[in-house]
Amino acid sequence: MNSSVEHSRGTPVGRRVVLGLLGLGAAGVVAGPYLQQAQSAVAAKDPTGLTGLLPGGGGFRYYSVVPSVPTRTEQTYELTVDGLVERPARFRLADLRAMPQRRIVRDVQCVTGWRVPETPFEGVSLADLLDVAGVRAGAGAVRFTCFDGTYTESLTLDQARRDDVLVALRMRDAPISHAHGGPVRLYVAPMYFYKSAKWLSGITVTPTVRPGYWERYGYDVDAWVGRSNGRDDAPTA
Length: 237
Hints:
Largest sheet: 5 strands, mixed
Distance between the termini: 24 Å
Strand order of the largest sheet: 2-1-10-5-6
C-alpha cells in the first residue's frame, strides 16, 4: 500500500512479476478469477506497493500487510469490546445482526488515488456499540485490532461517535466477503479507506489515540478525505 515501506512479510516478489501482472491487467486479458487469485497471492508479498495498481473487483484493490489471513465463519467469529468501558462484551455475528442496522452510501477513497463511487455499507453504528459497553470517564479514543494479527487503527472518541462510522456487516447489499475484510470490518465514511480496518476483531476504548499500522509509516492519523496526507481529493459526500 505504501511504496516507501521496505519491510515485507514472507519472501518479496520480484519487480518483473509485479510489472508482468500489471501488463496483463492493462491489456485486458480475459483471465477471470485466475488473474484475481494470482494478484492476491502476489499482493500479499509485495513490499513495492505496485500491486495496488492492479484492477480489482468492482474498482477496489487488494491490500494486506500479512501473507495470509485466516477466515472467520458464523461459528468462529467474535468481536470484543473492552478497555475503558463499564461492561466489556463479546459479540457473535448473530448478536451484531440483531442490533439496529444503519445504511450509508458514499464514495470510497483510497489514499493511493483510486475511488469507488456510491458504495453501500450496512452495519451497526459504532456509537451504539460503545453505548452498550458504557464508556468510562477518562476515555478519549478507540483502538481497533484485526484477526490478521497485525493491522491496527484508532479514532478519537468524538470521531468514533459520528453517525457515519459503522461496524459494517454488509457491502454492496451482500455480506462482506473475506477479501473485502469480512465478515466484519470498520467503515469510516469521511476518511481515507485505510482507516476502515478490515477483519475487525477488537474494539478497545483508550485514554488517547494510538497511531495505527500505516500511521507508523507516515500516514496521517486524522485522515479526512481531501484534508490530509497531502491530497486534495473531493470529500466522500
